[in-house]
Amino acid sequence: MRTWIAIGGLLVAGAAVAVPMLVPEPAAPELDQELLRAVAPVVHADLPVNRKVVWPGTAGGRWFCAERPVETRRDGDDVRFGLLASCSEYAHRDGKLVHGSGFSGALVVTLAASPDGYRVRDVELPPDGAGNSAALKRMFSAAGYEQVQRSAGHGPDPAPEARAAFGLPADAPVVPR
Q: Taking residues 121-144, what's their average pLDDT?
């Protein structure tokens, strides 16, 4: 009986080691670093004023966005830049950063080349609710979609940029309005 238990234990231990080796790592989405350096600043400047992403504020503040690149893809003459973005409206009061409205999620920005670099042509956001997953699968490559799914709930934080813009210390508290 002990022999069978020992053999069973060896089989379980062997499977625990072998299975992770057989399951491939998810493919990384394409992220062209040269292209990223060209388009990321354009997108960063556009998002806080783009009405597809932000809306008229209620806290009397300014919108700030932070982005995490997921993928870059060429689509004819256009560039499709998939990213995770968090945008929030902030004001400052009594040494504190006051948080108003906000958005956080995956989106794809389409950019066109222009004589001065790139310009934003469109920003695509998935719908909330039932159609979200299907839209993300359509918007991103398979590898990009998997990365977005793995990153859910871990978006970038725009608060450090807002603190700096308002001249607040890096550890200034963020409070709701």
A: 96
